[in-house]
Amino acid sequence: MTEANGQNDNPDKTAEAAEPVVSKPQVSKPYVMPDDPEPNSVEALTKEVADARDKMLRTLAEMENLRKRTQKEVADARTYGVSKFAGDIVDIADNLQRAIDAVPADAKAAADPGLKALLEGVELTERSLLNTLEKHGVKKIDPTGEKFDPNFHQAMYEVPDASVPAGTVVQVVQAGYTIGERVLRPALVGVSKGGAKAAPASE
């Protein structure tokens, strides 16, 4: 039977409805490392490490080779960059030498002071030019008496001469020049023939 004031005749249900509902916090389970990792995973990681190390070593080697090539190219450019200019300058040295050779020795001895001063000036100019070329790595080749070397000499004719071994340079028509380790211009020479063969170079 319901009371007149309208209250619920079931106090327990009323008390339950009046209590607030509190949600319980969710607690995550701690992560536990497996005792033994999978063998396939270890092999894959080992292979990745080995590949990464190999790539790193290859990259370092390539960078070192690039550095060496760059250094060589810079050195070659510094040494051989003036090759064309030097080739033109040695022509001037040739003309100075021809001017000196054009005056016979007896004419030089009997020349008046003015002519002697002129000849001395030409000779001084030639020596100064050759010294300047040598400072920049250009050297004159005078192979008289040496064994003919096709890498540095160009044979123009043969000279019958049994007093020297065959293949010896006995005359120099035009001097040669080198720049660094390269031939700027080969020497034009006359080579002996008829004599004994030149002895091979000792090891």
Brief sketch in words of this structure:
With 203 residues, the chain is of the alpha+beta class.
Question: Can you walk through the features of this model?
Answer:
By secondary structure, this protein is of the alpha+beta class. Helices cover 48% and strands 17% of the residues. It contains 5 helices and 6 strands. A 3-stranded antiparallel sheet has the order 1-4-5. β4 and β5 (182-185) form a beta hairpin. The chain is elongated.
Helices and strands in order:
Blueprint: H1 11-18, H2 39-80, H3 83-101, H4 105-109, H5 113-135, E1 138-141, E2 153-161, E3 169-174, E4 176-179, E5 182-185, E6 187-194
Parallel strand pairs: 2-6
Antiparallel strand pairs: 1-4, 3-6, 4-5
List keywords for this structure.
disordered N terminus; three-stranded antiparallel sheet; three-stranded mixed sheet; alpha+beta; 203 residues; 17% strand; 6 strands
Based on helices, strands and strand pairing, what is the structural class? Answer: alpha+beta
**Taking Cα atoms only, what radius of gyration do you get, to the nearest Å?**
48 Å
Principal-axis shape equals: elongated
The helix content, as a percent range, equals 40-55%
How many strands, what sense, and barrel or not for the largest sheet? 3 strands, antiparallel
Strand content: 15-25%
Distance between the termini: 135 Å
How confident is the prediction overall: mean pLDDT?
81
N-to-C SSE string, H for helix and E for strand = HHHHHEEEEEE
Number of helices: 5
Number of strands: 6
Q: Poorly predicted ranges (pLDDT <50, ≥5 residues)?
A: 1-6
Sheet with most strands: strand arrangement: 1-4-5
